[in-house]
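Database export, one record per block. Field names are fixed; values are copied verbatim from the stored entry.
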Amino acid sequence: MTDLPEKRNPINTQDEHEDERVRSGPLWRHALWAVLVTSAGVTLGWLGAMFRIGPEEYGLPPAAPGALWPYLFTWAVIGLGLGAILRFVAARVPVYSPSEVLLGTVMIGTRLSLGWRPEPLEVAGLAAAALLLVTVWCAVALRGAAVVRRSQDASEVV
């Protein structure tokens, strides 16, 4: 009578890390992934720039007047470079959510660039910050794979 009901986990834990896997395959598949995710990030950043986010005093302004295409093209090129780095590492070791990382960095960079129209040096700073984020993300994945490999080697020796 005082027994607690048995808890059931409705979530299938077997698929918990489904996104964290090695992404091998032909080069065209990696290139297609980079192009699609980058174009989605640029498009979402562009759509987000059509509206003001937050109050007039301190919110993100809508897209400033002027030419959009140089910024969109710049972030497309930056996104393709970041996508190449992420996919290169993801083809060798499991990387957690590379699509979300690429989509987020490109979308935020595009949104900020269209809102404030920074000078080329400032865009390069944003690109460097995105590159640093992707590099750290890949370094964590490489480190995790090395730790797993070492622990598996140690268990085989014993």
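Remark 1: The chain is about 65% helix and 0% strand.
Remark 2: The first helix runs from residue 27 to 48.
End of record.
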